[in-house]
Amino acid sequence: MPLHVQIAEGLLRLISMEGKKAIGKLLPSETDCVEHFGVSRLTVRQAMSSLHSRGIIARRRGRGTFVTGLPLDHDIGRAFEDEMRAGGHNSTVRLLEWKRVPMPEEIAQIFKFEDTSEIYRLRRLRLIDGKIRSLEERYIPTVIGDRISASELNTQSLFTLLRKLTGEKQANMRFVVSVGSADAALAKMLKVPRRTTLVVRKNTCYFHNDRPLMHGTVRFVARNYQFRFNVRMDLTP
Questions:
Q1: Same structural domain for residues 134 and 46?
Q2: Same domain, 22 and 131
Q3: DSSP tag of 232
Q4: Would the pTM of this model clear 0.90, i.e. be above it?
Q5: Same domain, yes or no: 200 and 216
Q6: DSSP 25
């Protein structure tokens, strides 16, 4: 791993350990970092530039470099909103769309058991501590969607609503994660420059009968987001 990456990740670990208490704190000067790590000034600048591009630090002329934010660390086995609130963040949403739409062809392949040509489409912006972090787009069968109001979607996570409506406490999730970039429309909604790197996470939610209850895509600004998960690995050849 390049030296500047090692230094950036080391500083990020220290910042993350402090949590919210780190925000606003002054980082060591460039000269101090050169002496402490025993590297060149260019290497330190590359490390700091990496953290700056991810929104972790900000440079203030004549004052130094300060911590301004933390990456959102998400255990993919938990509902995003629930985990953000448990971590002390203010998690809110901004509803863009909730309505019945004709069933798109690719979505019909997932909800093939549904005997209707329509499906509910949900589009929301997710805000953490007042900042837009992601765009959520979900498809819900009409038998479920008819029982969900727009006002509920403005205040509750989708998984909370699904638990209430079905009585289920566990769900099987299938994920596909890829990398994309923000086109003009996405960039405007997420308030980022065009071609900003995004983490694109598609997932389908199934309950015990293996019947899909939700399918959708969430697009996160990559520099603000990291996810983790635990798996049981099959070691047989």
A1: no
A2: no
A3: -
A4: no
A5: yes
A6: P
